[in-house]
Amino acid sequence: MTDLATFTVPMPSVRAADVPIPSVRSAGAPPGAAADFPAYCGDLFGELARADQRRWGEVYVRGLLDVPGRKTPARISEQVLGRRAVQQIQQFVNQSPWACGPVRGRLARQMARAFRVEAWSVDEVVFTKNGDRSVGVARQYAASQERTVNCQLALAASLVGHAGSVPVNWRLVLPARWDADERLRGQAHLPEEERCRPRWAYVMEALDEMLDEWTLEPLPVLADWRGESDPDPLLRGLEARGLGYVVRVAPHTPVVLPRRPAAVPGCRGTLAELAAHAARHTERTSVTWHDPVAERMRHSEFVTAPVLLRCEPAPGRGAGAAPRPRLLLADWPYGRPRPRGYWLTNLPARRLAEIVPLAQLGRFSEEALGRMHEEFGLGDFEGRSFRGWHHHVTLASAALGFDMVRQQADERALSETGA
Question: Which of 62, 218, 277, 287 has its CA 20 to 30 A from that of 331?
Fold first, then answer.
């Protein structure tokens, strides 16, 4: 993992440390938030080396929470501080050498205390851009939007449960064009070790940080991998780490078909063909579950079948114990010509009534990331640097996290009042 604290760039003529440490105005704060917010930020930024860094972190997160419309440094400083401090805020976000990892780890632990976390969700996040100089920008295919966009692409790892979701870890996906263009890399202050990699490698790096450095409790991983031609490296990486998973995949995903003809040894097919074979030879399983997003009961029929993709060593870890069998889960109601969705999981088939609602929790992470764009300025960062991008998305996650903490506190207060 890149240590952002060791990457240095030239400092502007006026530094945050050259001005008095600001006091955050609470006039625009939501009701009941003023007493909690400083303690929340004090915990998140407690490991930052300098007092001015800790206070500018509080200023920026408050701006992301309270400033209406676009969250620019000018608007944040004017509405939070009552004066312009644009250069100081830009310096804190773009250039100040504070490491994101400890802040993200503290955020994850706060969220684990704030609500019951049931899974980790990995989602693609699209940052649409007009130019071509911001770090990682390229005209590239965004699977989540099913189109080619001039954008930055990121992967967010979120803690998710029935109470909601908060992204706690981020990776910026670098296009291949950024590997060899030294001018672009220099302008964005891109660390030498940051290179284009397969998406599963970014996911493994983020999960290893959560497991090994933050020591979070391992939970099932949810992911939408329909945009990837081969889910096998991702699945093997998760299996090597002993993680359960429910991964949505495309119907054309290649698999080994059962009962292959003797004349065609090693016959390969697709998940769609495997689901059709299973539907002809096994009974569908009826599952009724509570939809956590729509808040209603749903009913469907599912076809299940063992899955064989490949037999290779798992990437990034030792051989360890034999992985649990993989299972195809196809949502295929009677009367429909084909399934509505395909998932691969290593969770036991007998727990189908738990796996189905677990898979739906990924919709909470999508909803939370959408809110971050609309309410907390996730896409408002105007800088171009690798460090600045990581700082901004970390602080945007902190803003959503405080909203979650506040929501949970309000619900507890209402419950106690009602009692």
Answer: 218
